[in-house]
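Subject: mismatched residue count in predicted assembly?

I count 415 residues in my input, but I want to confirm that the predicted structure covers every chain. Input:
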Amino acid sequence: MGRVSVARDSAGGLAAPGDPTVGAEPVTKGERTRLRLLALAIERFGERGYRPTSVSEIARAAGLTQAAAYAYFPSKEALFDAAVDADAAALVDEAESQAADVPVGQLVPMLVMCFLGGLEHHPLTRRVVGGREPDALARLVNLPALGRLTGDIADAVRTAQARGEVRDDVDADLFASGAETIIVSLVMSVAQVGATTEMRRQLGVLSIFDAVLRPPDRP
Amino acid sequence: MSADLAETKGERTRRRLLELAIDRFGARGYRSTSVSEIARAAGLTQAAAYAYFAGKEDLFVAAVDADASALIDGAYAGVAELALPQLFPSFIVALSADLPAHPLARRVLAGREPEVIARLVELPAMQTVTARMETRVRKAQAAGTVGANVDAAKLCAGIEAIVVALLLSMVQIGGAPTRRHQAGVVEAFAALLRPG
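Triage response: the counts match. Full output below for your records.
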């Protein structure tokens, strides 16, 4: 818990307005170095975790001294938190673009599948949702990218409601918040429980969201 | 379970060992708890305890199953009579409210015994509850209060997966979920069961 609050105090320094993983090409040399440090931090922290990984090994891999790395991230905690944010935000963006054309009734299960599939390429996020960096879990829940995703789910529900494809007695914003909570929970539990989760359950999860949004049958 | 009048002395001893195992494993985890300390607390020698459970792992797994089953049965008993739209969110609330009384189930949900976490998903007690929920959904469909276009079996399997997932994430993320998130989950469940 301590680590999270320490990091929050220095958050101003970490959260550059442009998320490192989205948006335009980095322009300056400084930005490039910062991104390189982040990419290495995602890899190293993802592989071995917070404790056994040192800032100096990440700096060295980036061709920097430890002191030079501290110009970009004021502490190991700050680097770790920024790496978690960047890795998770990239996963959310990927999942969202993969699920972009899916009908809204299948959006939530599709997002769950995209998240689970994408975890393979996001070692640090996988580690966190796998419960192996418990202090960082709260960061994931409050991730701005996740808030954006929730807003987009709400918009998709509203659009489909306007077209009559989704029942109009569903509150789009509330539904999207519930969907966000359920997506994060399912990703965590499948990541931790492992491949033993059988098809029955996955099918169940699929049908549940379709049923929520399906317009009532008119006799 | 079988804690009736008919319980034999052997059954009583077995149950006592399980209760102590839930307590000790729940407080300090698998690795730092020994069978001999549990046996001693039950007034048995370690050898005598092994007549009931083949090994430490056996005792641990039986304790996890017993504690998680008691949690599920107790929480469901408290909400079983509620109307369907309230049943599912209330079940989650009841599970999370009862969790402090089930230290070993809580420890497993917290991700601190990763080797046995998959057991929670396969627990017969959970499957029994899911079957009971399914019966409720079918009855409501027959009565026309739940849409007939819902596949009750798949729906309840999905709800089961979501209930376990929400409980796990609540325990691990800590802190109460925000009102918006709670209300959102309730809205999703409520919308699900509105008559079509």
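Chain A touches chain B at residues 131-132, 134, 137-138, 141, 167, 169-171, 174-182, 184-186, 188-190, 192-194, 196-197, 200-208, 211-214, 216-217 (CB under 8 Å). Marking this ticket as 'not a bug'.
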